[in-house]
């Protein structure tokens, strides 16, 4: 049996337990993923309340993706939900910030939180066709915190139609990890962009979004004021390494050194 060595611990992508690691290394391929994307308008102030500085809001639109992941490296099949709002970096680059994230995979939750800093929690996102209707639900604590619907394949479209709401392929996250002493170890804004996106089909139409209150999944803080469009699309894509776009601890050091 191989023994754990210092060089193993120091290499990139290392995860515990060392002989059956929890967190996959990059890249990760997602094949035949089905996505229900729902867009709606909310209170602009509600979005600003959830954005960490120095991010700025770019619109009053909320975009919810409910995924049926059918074939993912390491993980297999599971459900996922990403709640996004448009955001802009001080550099002027725009993307989408995720205030809430839910998965039915323990590996996916761990990878998202440890590596990306995504606010992932365990939940039960589901996407299914019920007759002439796509129905997406996200359940946490036995409560359907999100219920979304879209008519079944009535209007052919392209995922480029999603881009008018926000650049959803560039995902921004607030990574917060503490030392064992309780002091901050990592405080960063991270960014990652999906790669090798191959869309097999895309359909759009009017959608409905219903939110139910749950303090452990407080999506209701982004209330639905106006329904926009819904999309069903199926694609392959690859999750690759990202970048650190802002380091709060380094910025605090610089500010402290200049005073």
**CATH architecture classification name:** Beta Barrel
How are helices and strands ordered from N to C?
HEHEEEHEEEEEEEEEEH
Low-confidence stretches: none
Tell me about the largest β-sheet: 14 strands, mixed
CATH class: Mainly Beta
Tell me what portion of residues adopts beta-strand conformation. over 45%
Q: Would you tell me the structural class of the helices and strands?
A: mainly beta
Mean pLDDT score: 96
Which term fits the overall shape? globular
What share of residues is helical? Answer: 10-25%
Structure description:
- It is a single chain.
- 34% of the residues are buried.
- This protein has 259 residues and is mainly beta.
- The protein has one domain (22-257): Beta Barrel (Acetoacetate decarboxylase-like), CATH 2.40.400.
- The chain starts with 5 loop residues before the first helix and ends with a helix.
- Helices cover 13% and strands 53% of the residues.
- It has helices spanning 6-10, 44-50, 106-116, 248-257, and strands spanning 28-41, 56-72, 76-88, 94-103, 120-122, 124-130, 133-140, 143-151, 155-156, 170-178, 184-193, 195-211, 226-239, 243-247.
- The chain is built from 4 helices and 14 strands.
- It is globular and about 55 Å long.
- Strands 1, 2, 3, 4, 5, 6, 7, 8, 9, 10, 11, 12, 13 and 14 form a 14-stranded mixed beta sheet that branches.
